[in-house]
Structures are given as structure tokens and as C-alpha cells.
Design brief:
The chain contains 8 helices and 6 strands. It is α/β, with parallel strands linked by helices. A 6-stranded parallel β-sheet has the order 3-2-1-4-5-6, with helices on both faces. The protein is globular.
Length: 237
């Protein structure tokens, strides 16, 4: 069956970066704003606990945004409303300053525009544990704000996270495609590789590879972003 849709991860794929460094920048910025109520370590622990609850959520009627907020607020204690307000303000006022922690490449825009010319539908299948504001800001850093993506997964519009197979099945439902029509292109062996459980072909980008490629369950292909561009030009993905 002809491949009709390409699902792209964002962080470490279309937007090269070191995720640990980037997250440290996020957490540090938030910690400065909420220091009156929480120590930095307390804030980070709260965030990761809420992320864990969000990833493990099975309720298809609650968005990731709703699950994360409920989990965070349940643990935050005194001042939780103020803390939440400051975290939202961080995304509005300071998040854009983190661009220097990423390494945008012109290849990202060239890949997406070439794929559109070749007739592919494009999806930004980034792990939806960030709010829409932060995801669209990162797309802007990558030079992709004008690309007509079929879908961009965010906390607000998603009900599951990577590496849950339900995340990929929800995407398939939203774009009206069967697994055989899609390819997932990402850099994380576990999170992006999980698309294979939904029957989606997986390609791993090695520029910022996270994890070791399994010998027993190899992806359909591995290569650099430069390789991805050449394969798309010749419809080899």
C-alpha cells in the first residue's frame, strides 16, 4: 500500500536538540518563578510525577492537559493556584527565550516542503506533554510555522502519550488513515519505535538518536535528516 502520511517527531528530529539540556532550561525558568512556594527539586519532582500519571492515563475522555493539571494540583499543596499561574505565565513570557538551547536546521523545512510536493500528508507527532503554546513556539524555531500540517499533537488535543500505542491509534483515527499508509519518523527508539505496535512503519533519525536500536526488532530504516530528505524526494519512505 502506498505511504500517504508521514508522522514526524519534533524534539531531536525536525528540531535537533539535547533533550536533557532543553528540559533543564525549562525547569530552571519555571523554578525561578515559583521559588516563593517550591524549591527547584520539589517542582521538578512534582512535574515528573504528573507526567507519569499522564503517560499512564487510560481515560479517553480526559485530555493530557486535564490529567496533568489534576495530578499536579493534587500534589502541589499550599499556593498551588499561584504556582500553576506562574507556570502558565512562563510559557507566555519566557519559553521563547529557550531557543538557544536548540539547533534548528534548514533541512527540516526542506524535508516538509518536499514531502508536501510529493503528495504526503504531514503530522507533527510530538509527545503531547507540552501545551500548544510551547509546541507551536518550537515549530517556529524550526522554521515550520507556515507548514500546513494535518495534525499537531498537543496536551490540549491528545488523550494519550508516547510510548502508548493508544497515542498512535488516536492519530490514525484523527487523520483517517490506516497504519499501512503511514510512516513514523523520530529519534527515540522507545517512544517513536512504539508506533510499530500500531502497525505503522518506523524510521529512526540518527542525528540525535535516543536509545539503542534493537537487533531483534529493527526499524524499517535508520538514517540522518539528510538521508530522510533524499528518500522523500524519491518516495522511498
Amino acid at each position: 500500500m502506498t505511504r500517504r502520511a508521514l508522522l514526524f517527531d519534533l524534539d531531536g528530529t525536525l528540531l535537533p536538540l539535547d533533550l536533557e539540556t532543553f528540559l533543564h532550561g525549562c525547569f530552571s525558568g519555571m523554578a525561578r518563578r515559583v521559588g516563593r512556594w517550591l524549591a527547584p527539586d520539589e517542582l521538578v519532582n512534582l512535574i515528573w510525577a504528573a507526567v507519569k500519571d499522564t503517560v499512564e492515563n487510560d481515560d479517553s475522555h480526559r485530555t493530557n492537559d486535564e490529567v496533568f493539571r489534576e495530578a499536579f494540583m493534587a500534589r502541589a499543596g499550599a499556593g498551588k493556584e499561584e504556582v500553576w499561574a506562574e507556570m502558565e505565565a512562563f510559557y507566555e513570557e519566557e519559553f521563547a527565550q529557550l531557543r538557544h538551547l536548540t539547533r534548528p536546521t534548514d533541512l527540516a523545512q526542506e524535508i516538509c516542503r518536499t514531502a508536501l510536493e510529493q503528495g504526503y500528508e504531514l503530522v507533527v507527532a510530538t509527545n503531547p506533554i507540552f501545551p500548544e503554546k510551547a509546541i507551536h513556539e518550537r515549530l517556529r524555531w524550526a522554521g515550520l510555522e507556515a507548514i500546513p500540517f494535518r495534525l499537531v499533537t498537543t496536551m490540549e488535543n491528545s488523550h494519550y502519550c508516547k510510548p502508548r500505542v493508544h497515542y498512535y491509534r488516536e492519530i490514525l483515527t484523527k487523520i483517517g488513515r490506516c497504519p499501512e499508509e503511514c510512516t513514523m519518523i523520530g529519534n527515540d527508539v522507545v517512544e517513536d519505535g512504539a508506533a510499530a505496535e500500531a502497525g505503522i512503519a518506523v524510521g529512526l533519525v540518527t542525528d540525535c538518536l535516543v536509545g539503542s536500536v534493537p537487533v531483534d526488532r529493527p526499524p524499517a530504516w535508520t538514517g540522518t535528516l539528510t538521508d530522510v530528505l533524499e528518500w522523500i524526494k524519491h518516495r522511498e519512505i
